[in-house]
Amino acid sequence: MFHTSHIELSRSAYRNNLKYLQKLIGNDTKFSSVIKGNAYGHGLEHIVPMAEEFGVNHFSVFSASEAFDTLKMKSDSSGLMIMGLLDYEEIEWAIKNDIEFFVYEPGKLEKAINISKLLKKKARIHIEVETGFHRTGFEYEYMPRLIDYMKKNREHYVFEGLCTHYAGAESISNYVRVKNQIKKFHKFSRYFQRHDLIPLKKHTASSAATLTYSQTIMDMVRVGIAQYGFWPSPETHMYRFRKNPGESNLLRRVISWKTKIMVIKEVEPGEFIGYGTSFLANKKMKIAVLPVGYANGFSRAFSNTGRVLIRGRRVPVVGTVTMNTTTVNVSDLPNVEKGDEVVIIGKQRKLSISVSSFCQMSEQLNYQLLARLPSNIPRYVVK
Ligand SMILES: Cc1ncc(COP(=O)(O)O)c(C=O)c1O
After folding, report:
1. How many CA atoms lie within 13 A of 153 on its CB side?
2. What helix, strand, coil percent values describe the chain, rounded to 5?
């Protein structure tokens, strides 16, 4: 009621993925569940308790506002880490709330130390180093000053982590770059070690690195997309598949997205469907209008290319996706009715639609589509 579509989250798929990933990283490595972007669109309030129930006790977010939301969901014993933006004004709040955070610039470190002195409470910092991604992180040239400052202020922080992020471990085309990053990370790590600054955890791997570069699995991994059952890229899937030819369904999609048919109508040959002229009916057609458009997270890029499932059959999007509606061709479904279930992502009878199968237009489509799922679509946990 009051919603044009809903999302189902599979507990068993989520448990399967966490089990698989934990097995892959081994018992000595901590699993940090990356739940930025509303848990990649899955819904923070559902994913955090489920993750904890299945043994996860560390979460990673991008910003202070995401950390603020997560604090309300997680139990006190679970760690929480901000990997991105924490404004200087928010550092005090983070320290007071025991939130760990990435430090990637001198100003942030100084501010954290000054506040921890005032509060008489140690800041829990992860030093991010620049190994070649060129986003955030201390440059190697800055090491002497950083080390000096860290040594002088030892008692005001906990050196929770030394970390970096790879520039596209999901694609073989970045192989050399990633390998160089790994080398550079070790160079940084040795530098800290020489100066007796030992982080509690070294962590560098996201999903793709965890799945394909075993040497990047250190004391902790920061896994996002894979825990939700998505491969970061087809290459990553192929790599794991070749390593485990006997196993299938190593990762299972957690999310399903469903709606219902809003209107059915017939269109005469020669008529255009929807806005503009992007789809011309070349014979008499039966079409179904769905109450889901780009305002609901169904990208306009699926105009004339997307697919949904109705009555166990795959049917194509015709015309352009509008803000609130999408039209599909149901000419081959004789008994189709208004109110019929429509699966946008997920399984119906023998068929299923994966997120990536919408189209191959963008390697990052999984991430994009998920992150754009509005938080007001109701989510339900199912078996
Ligand atoms: C620093 C950092 N670590 C880990 C991740 C998780 O990445 P993935 O979803 O590919 O596992 C991200 C996501 O972009 C990230 O920015």
Report:
1. 25
2. 35, 25, 40
Span from the CA of 204 to the centroid of ligand 1 (angstroms): 10
For ligand 1, atom 5, the nearest C-alpha belongs to: 206
DSSP summary character for residue 129: B
Q: Across 236-365, where does the E strand assignment appear?
A: 255-260, 263-267, 285-290, 307-310, 313-316, 326-329, 341-348, 351-353
Atom index in ligand 1 nearest the CA of residue 83 equals: 1
Question: How far is residue 56's CA from residue 50's CA, in Å, rounded to a whole number?
Answer: 9
Q: Are 161 and 202 in contact (CB under 8 A)?
A: yes
- Distances, alpha carbon 185 to alpha carbons 46, 160, 169, 189, 218, in Å: 35, 16, 15, 6, 12
Q: Which CATH class is domain 255-353?
A: mainly beta
Task: Dump pLDDT digits (tens) for 343-360.
Answer: 999 999 999 988 776 544
Under CATH, domain 12-243 is a member of which superfamily? Answer: Alanine racemase (3.20.20.10)
Other beta carbons within 10 Å of 238: 13
pLDDT tens digits along 258-291: 999 999 999 999 999 999 999 999 999 999 999 9
